[in-house]
Design goal:
The protein has a four-stranded mixed β-sheet with strand order 1-2-4-3, covered by helices on one side. The chain is built from three helices and four strands, in the order βαβααββ. It is globular and about 40 Å long. It is α+β, with helices and mostly antiparallel strands.
């Protein structure tokens, strides 16, 4: 589980690959991310290195074999969203 964490890492792909590595087969990765569609998250927290939307995180998952995206949904309207993936193959 990662809650408002991924946006603080310099290398998103490297981080997701590491999280995938430590998951067992069939393991679930759940992330809550700030939603850049509605607010400027870097202005709110300058320690953010990246911004995300549901569409942008979905594109990241197309670059990583072995993590199947299974859900993207709103957590707090106009603030954050949930992204859930499963380690496969």
């Amino acid at each position: 589980v990662s809650r408002h964490n991924l946006e603080h890492y310099v290398d998103v792909i490297k981080t997701l690959l590491e999280w995938k590595r430590v998951l067992r087969q069939g393991g679930i990765l759940a992330m809550v991310l700030p939603d850049e569609r509605y607010l400027d998250t870097i202005a709110l927290d300058p320690s953010h290195k990246h911004v995300f939307t549901p569409e942008s995180i979905e594109r990241y998952f197309t670059l990583i074999d072995g993590l199947e995206l299974i859900e993207i949904s709103e957590v707090i309207p106009k603030w954050s969203f949930l992204c859930v993936a499963k380690k496969v193959g």
